[in-house]
Amino acid sequence: MEDLSYYEILEITQTTDKTIIKKAYRKMAKKYHPDKNPDDTEAEHKFKLCNEAYQVLSDDQQRGIYDRYGKEGLQNGGGGGGRRSSGGFDDLGSMFEEMFGGGGGSRRRQNPADQDKYSLDLSIEMTISFHEAVFGCEKDIEFKYKTSCKPCKGSGAKDGKVSTCSQCGGSGQVHMRQGFMTFAQTCPVCNGAGQSATSKCNSCNGSGYENVKESVKVNIPAGIDNGNRLRVSGKGNIGKRGNRGDLYVTFNVQEDKHFIRSENDIYLEVPVFFTQAVLGETLTIPSLTGELELNLDKGTKDKQHYKFRGEGIEDVHGHGKGDLIAQITLTYPKSMNDEQRELLNKLQESFGIESKPSESTLDSAFDKVKGWFK
């Protein structure tokens, strides 16, 4: 095995990303860990090689050196296969804690039959109004959670009677061999429980759980946004041993007719008549907390922005407030009577050449085009 490349040791390719590398290492480490292979020197050696491969491939700098120069490049200053990498050992500790129950304590594998058939944490979605999201509110949430079926004690079997799985022999795992390596995977028949129901429970129809309705009052903080999650501790699903997970509420916020949200900023479209934009006026516009005065510049342009700092939405984590941005939309008369038309013509004439900017701007372009055809 030591003649294999680090990628071959972990049975991955050179283009594999860090997430897959980590999964591959977990799989190999579980297989060859000394606690699972007592007095097996070959397994211990393979376990060390897996560690060495992961330490290098989980570190971007060492992996780059290894890809270019191989192990020799690492030994000549790049880090060395047996050296401690900056990220490798940090990951190893957390992985072994997950795989074997933490350091120094018992590392006995939990009996698959004791494991719950569902996640204890529960996720639901909730739709709230724009106003409720901006200012916060208190809501009653109705939901359904799973709890272990009492008649079958969560086994899904009638009267709790189960038999050893014929596929895996009760181990919860099946093994397959590839070359000189043997791989273990969860039994597809019993899903790792090692047991199967002799006959289905009449109460839960073999699912091992029942659904129960419940409601809970929650305080939704001001500034909540689309996709934000709120955790309600101890309101999730209930497992076989009575332990209960958490409820996670994901929010969908309805759009407002006038205000448009962008993170903690608020945009408001303000229609302005073209004469108001030319002359400049003071307008009263709505805000989240009341009214604001908007002083238009003389010659205000279409789509021009006016910013009111601190008039936006309060950050849900308490990091201040966003801004309100008023965006100008110029409007023009839909129709005119003769008097209005005459007044506009007189106004245009009073500006002289300034009222016809296209003539002075485009004269040189016309002369240039004419020259093309001489």
Defining key terms:
alpha+beta; Helix Hairpins; single chain; HSP40/DNAj peptide-binding domain; 15 strands; 374 residues
Task: Give the arrangement of secondary structure elements.
Elements (H helix, E strand, L loop, with lengths): L5 H4 L8 H15 L8 H17 L2 H19 L9 H13 L21 E7 L1 H6 L1 E12 L13 E3 L8 E6 L2 E6 L8 E3 L11 E12 L8 E4 L14 E7 L5 E4 L2 E9 H6 L2 E5 L4 E5 L9 E4 L15 E8 L6 H13 L6 H16 L2
Parallel strand pairs: 1-9, 11-15
Antiparallel strand pairs: 2-7, 3-6, 4-5, 8-9, 10-11, 12-13, 14-15
Task: Please list the strands of the largest sheet in the order they lie side by side.
Answer: 10-11-15-14
Task: Give the CA-based shape.
Answer: elongated
Looking at the structure, the CATH topology of the largest domain is: Helix Hairpins
Q: What would CATH call the architecture of the largest domain?
A: Orthogonal Bundle
Strand-residue proportion: 25-35%
Oligomer: single chain
Q: Strand count, sense and closure of the main sheet?
A: 4 strands, mixed
- Main structural class: alpha+beta
Query: What is the terminal separation in angstroms?
Result: 83 Å
Total strand count, please?
A: 15
Low-confidence stretches: 78-90, 100-109
Within CATH, the superfamily of the largest domain carries the name DnaJ domain
Output mean pLDDT: 79
Count of domain modules: 4
